[in-house]
């Protein structure tokens, strides 16, 4: 969470607000506005969210590990959404792909990165191995296994109450 807050605050500190584009979209039949930044500004906000705390080694180490964990998790979610043909959340399209963010952040931090190249490669390999398990599981199960909601209907996917296991 600290990385995410730092990322958003860095947009302000770096002067990105004047370069942002505001677009409207509907979520649960309510109009919302989303601020969209050029992808280069997103990469810059990732970097400055950590650069601004680099003087505090303990905090920097903790928050930068959280940043890489968050970006790895987002990468895995993106891969799952694609593999399982699940509709992306509207807001997920406003940022560069998580794997690109992870790589760019690591490269930009250079020697200050808390992870080395082999650690990042290992994390991405584990993510790929987990994705392979999901692919095999998907192939051997009912076609809609990962999108079948059972007793819970996810509000982002439907706009009205649905009849459980009939309309799912």
Question: Would you mind describing this structure in some detail?
Answer:
- By secondary structure, the chain is mostly helical.
- It has a domain at 2-117.
- It has 5 helices and 2 strands.
- The chain has helices at 2-13, 39-51, 57-83, 98-109, 117-140; strands at 21-27, 30-36.
- β1 (21-27) and β2 (30-36) form a beta hairpin.
- The radius of gyration is 19 Å and the shape is flat.
- The mean pLDDT is 81.
Q: How much is the radius of gyration in Å?
A: 19 Å
Span between termini: 33 Å
Shape by Cα distribution: flat
* Number of beta-strand segments: 2
Structural class: mainly alpha
- Strand order, largest beta sheet: 1-2
| Strand portion | 5-15%
User: If you average the pLDDT, what whole number results?
Assistant: 81
Order of helices and strands: HEEHHHH
Percentage of residues in helical conformation:
40-55%
| Biggest beta sheet attributes | 2 strands, antiparallel
Number of helical segments with 4 or more residues: 5
Sequence stretches where pLDDT stays below 50 over 5 or more residues:
none
Topology:
Blueprint: H1 2-13, E1 21-27, E2 30-36, H2 39-51, H3 57-83, H4 98-109, H5 117-140
Antiparallel strand pairs: 1-2
Helix pairs in contact: 1-2, 2-4, 3-4, 3-5
In short:
The protein is mainly alpha-helical. About 50% of the residues lie in helices and about 10% in strands. The chain has a domain at about 1-115.
Descriptive labels:
2 strands; mainly alpha
